[in-house]
Amino acid sequence: MHQADIENMMGSSCSASGFFALRVLGDSMLPEFKEGSIIIIDPDGLVKDGCYVLAEDEKETYIFRQLRIQDDKYYLVPLNDLYDTVQISGLEVIKGVIIQRAGTRRKDHKHYQ
Fold it and tell me: What is the overall mean pLDDT for the chain?
């Protein structure tokens, strides 16, 4: 995802707690999220082990991964084994929780809790 695109969406006239949508770029979250899928993010969503999140890394770029919590440590895990897991300092880097995947066909739509 391009940071400028995310900032433009996040900086729109919507309230800070409003849902927003992003298009998945790349294959790091295959097979669950194909490139081109639309994900809906809730900035105030419940952050828990196993949920899909949008986070800001130390380079001030955004990353979409699955959150894993183990032994009081936090990790952003790709679903595609070709990519590395990233350890994060804590939940403060989480910018939102993915609550829905939308696609061009109804069968591609899925809700996450």
Answer: 85
Architecture of domain 3-111: Ribbon (2.10)
pTM summary value: 0.80
Write the CB contacts of 98 (distance below 8 Å, at least 6 apart in sequence).
Answer: 39, 40, 41, 45, 51, 52, 53, 54, 64, 112
> Alpha-carbon distance 33 to 27, whole Å?
8
- Contact between 13 and 23 under an 8 Å Cβ cutoff? The reply is no
Q: For CA atoms 54, 52, 76, 63, give the dihedral sign.
A: negative
- Answer for the pair 91, 34: CB distance below 8 angstroms, yes or no: no
Say if CB 52 and CB 97 are below 8 A apart. Answer: yes
Contact (Cβ atoms closer than 8 angstroms) between residue 91 and residue 53: no
